[in-house]
Amino acid sequence: MIKALRGMNDILNEKAQIYKHIVEICESVALNFGYSFIETPKLENTSLFKRSVGESSDIVGKEMYEFTDKGGNDVCLRPEGTAGVVRAFIEHKFDKTSGVKRYFYHGSMFRYERPQKGRLREFHQFGIECFGENSIYEDASVIIIGAKILQKLGIKTTLKINSLGDKNCMPEYKNKLVTFLNNIQDELCEDCKRRIQTNPIRVLDCKVDHCKEVLKNAPLIINNLSKECESEFKKLQEILTKNGIKFEIDPKLVRGLDYYTKTAFEFVSDEIGSQSAVLGGGRYDNLVEFLGGKPTYGVGFALGIERIMEILSSKDYKIQRKKIYLCALDDKFIDQIYNLCLNLRDEYEVEISYEAKNATKHLKNADNINANVFLCVGEDEAKNSEIWYKNLQNKQDKKIKISDIKQELKANL
């Protein structure tokens, strides 16, 4: 028997319903904030991610599904979504037009790492990207979108924020940090030693307990911000506070990718074990230019769908659906209910039984599929052009005219 590859799972049945529900919630919030859907290829040139994510990142160094195709091209399966959206933005020359562009996406990402709870080799993300808007209010809006999505899904999280500065304050800060790191490098793990040379700020993101301990006194970018960055960071806190968004300032939050500047944030949850990020992002004003486009402001986030699914599944989360079970007590009424089924499917999800059974068995089937409404035609109903209607939520039970069925459903579903 051929099985799915390790770390690449099927999504079906209850999990498929939850997946679809998460995406629908994400889309509805993003659309209300003026975002439109974009789909980019799952396979891209490897250079796109080496240049955007950064050679120093674990994604590029250890985790990419990279190979040479039959045409001799160095390609890889996308490990994250932002770089592909930026590539599309530049390729279609949107960087040379005025105005603000906002996009949302969802789909598969790929990283070759050890599969574990909420972390797979093929995983799925929902993300948003905004281009061309420099206002700190947009940073706040992106964070608020994330907060609204998680609130609608009923997930409790802690929002952590930081500022990574910009090209005016980062160079001086990096010099201070490298000096500090060089003095303690013998106590650091091998990854941290490597990062001192490639991207020293990533050392602060190390998850090794010993490194966390020796980095306690490391200089922090939040104490070395330019006046402009400091002012914007204070304004961001003010906007979030005024709009009821609680947060914690985490001066060591740097995110896992190299392209972030200024605002960085994560929503973390401890509902699936140790505290981990379920949604994170920030500002990346240099990325479009770095990938060959005209300098363009950018800000966005990505949400890990599998992590959200894991949390909802642990709560025995139920999807509220408007489903109708339609059946007959005799084979001679199947044509009649089939025509009714097609009519109702213009507006509702209808499960029809083509097999005549007694009412008890039909009701059991309706319960098994979590139907909201049970509709059945028998001898008496057929004679009077009626249908047996039962609301399976409030147990209302009656016979109504078939001509009135849509009106009844509209009032109760």
Automatic annotation (TrEMBL):
One of its GO terms (biological process) is histidyl-tRNA aminoacylation. The keyword Repeat does not apply. L-histidine binds at residues 80-82, 111, 125, 129, 255, 259-260. Its main location: cytoplasm. Gene3D superfamilies: Anticodon-binding domain, Bira Bifunctional Protein, Domain 2. Pfam families: HGTP_anticodon (PF03129), tRNA-synt_His (PF13393). It catalyses: tRNA(His) + L-histidine + ATP = L-histidyl-tRNA(His) + AMP + diphosphate + H(+). It comes from the Bacteria. GO terms for cellular component: cytoplasm. Its EC number is 6.1.1.21. Residues 1-312 form the Aminoacyl-transfer RNA synthetases class-II family profile domain. Homodimer. The gene is hisS. HAMAP family: His_tRNA_synth. InterPro entries: aa-tRNA-synth_II, aa-tRNA-synth_II/BPL/LPL, Anticodon-bd, Anticodon-bd_dom_sf, His-tRNA-ligase, HisRS-like_core, HisRS/HisZ. NCBIfam families: hisS. This is Histidine--tRNA ligase. Belongs to the class-II aminoacyl-tRNA synthetase family. It is an enzyme of class 6 (ligase). One of its GO terms (molecular function) is ATP binding. Coiled coil: none annotated. It is found in: Cytoplasm. Keywords: Aminoacyl-tRNA synthetase, ATP-binding, Cytoplasm, Ligase, Nucleotide-binding, Protein biosynthesis.
